[in-house]
Design goal:
The structure is a single chain. With 46 residues, this protein is mostly helical. The protein is 57% helix and 0% strand. The radius of gyration is 18 Å and the shape is elongated.
Amino acid sequence: MSSILTNTSAMVALQTLRGINSNLTMAQNEIATGKSISSAKDNSTV
């Protein structure tokens, strides 16, 4: 009988890091363009 072991703490940490990386990418894009709107898909009401 085989079992699959999961490290819940590692999975939560990975999810957190992915979220941080996504937010960092958006912030870097805004800094690089100098605007909070850098593409057509961004909020046009800002």
